[in-house]
């Protein structure tokens, strides 16, 4: 049997990816966790537009459009994408990027907040006009009309969720905008939140403790299900899925951190 040869690539176009797939099937935080476990050295390409470099499993740099570093990493995590490719090779940097864990959790927070407000219809309060701030929210406020859901306005303007979510929340807190309507009934069919035949449906009260619906479910699938149900606001299901994941891997740091986060969101 011949020895296997590892071909080192220096750019995405110079070698075939060692792993590729749809982000509907595997979320980026789970993929990064897998690459950390495998001590991967190379880079992760998302939709050929955004890139995360890794050295021995640790994130060393990221780029997304004009953004670099931590802000680019957060943008990649929040924006997601449709396709990913993983390459072996020499990363642009070998020193681990700082604040990766906090950036990961901040991206979860942004996605949680977005799930709460994406269906709202906004309007400016009274006869106020929006004074330009020089930030991404300006493009959004220029088109709010009191009838179109926020998610459609974001898609229309192409503004980044990282730049707009906190600013919309701040504008609401200051009384500059008000939510006039909440459009419901669309989140359940969001791409990537399909329920397989061998898994319990998202939503509702978790199954009785005497029944374990997660028997035979893969660890990483449990993490994906927990993340999806957290985005939908079903913290009970997310908590149950993460507890099942920790039964499979009691020492897993990511699952433990996510469970603490979900319990904080769920409250007493």
List keywords for this structure.
268 residues; alpha+beta; 9 helices
- Percent strand: 15-25%
Order of helices and strands: EHEEEEHEHEHHHEHHH
Biggest sheet statistics = 6 strands, antiparallel
Distance between the termini: 59 Å
Outline, from the CA principal axes? globular
How many independent structural domains?
Answer: 3
Tell me the structural class.
alpha+beta
What would the average pLDDT be, to the nearest integer? 78
Radius of gyration: 20 Å
Q: Number of helical segments?
A: 9
Any low-confidence stretches, pLDDT <50, length ≥5?
A: 1-14, 184-204
Q: What's the total number of strands? A: 8
Fraction of helical residues: 25-40%
As laid out across the biggest beta sheet, the strand order is 1-6-2-3-4-5
Kindly describe this structure:
With 268 residues, the chain is α+β, with helices and mostly antiparallel strands. It folds into 3 domains: 12-105, no CATH class; 120-182, no CATH class; 189-266, no CATH class. Helices cover 40% and strands 15% of the residues. The strands form 2 sheets. The chain has a 6-stranded antiparallel sheet with strand order 1-6-2-3-4-5. Strands 7-8 form a two-stranded antiparallel ribbon. Strand 4 (58-64) and strand 5 form a beta hairpin. The protein is globular and about 55 Å long. The protein starts with 18 loop residues before the first strand and ends with a helix.
